[in-house]
């Protein structure tokens, strides 16, 4: 996970608009905000994304 993706996750989280486990809503907000790296990351690395949300660890 790149630093850019982490920053985009935090930016979506800070909106307070979505449960961060609702990946479709997270992707919707990310797309709206121009966070295309995050949209693609969730598509390609769903398990790693969930691990980061639960633990804060990116490995």
Describe the protein in words:
This protein is mostly helical. The chain is 73% helix and 0% strand. The protein has 4 helices and no strands. The longest helix is centred in the N-terminal third of the chain and has 13 residues. The chain is globular, with a radius of gyration of 10 Å.
The overall average pLDDT, rounded, is: 95
Task: Report the major sheet.
Answer: none
Query: Count the helices. How many?
Result: 4
Overall structural class, as computed from helix and strand content, comes to mainly alpha
Query: What is the helical fraction, as a range of percent?
Result: over 70%
Q: Can you write the helix and strand succession as a string?
A: HHHH
Q: How far apart are the first and last residues' alpha carbons, in Å?
A: 8 Å
Could you tell me the strand content as a percent range? under 5%
How many β-strand runs? 0
Radius of gyration: 10 Å
Which stretches of 5+ consecutive residues score pLDDT under 50? none
Judging from the principal axes of the Cα atoms, what is the shape? Answer: globular
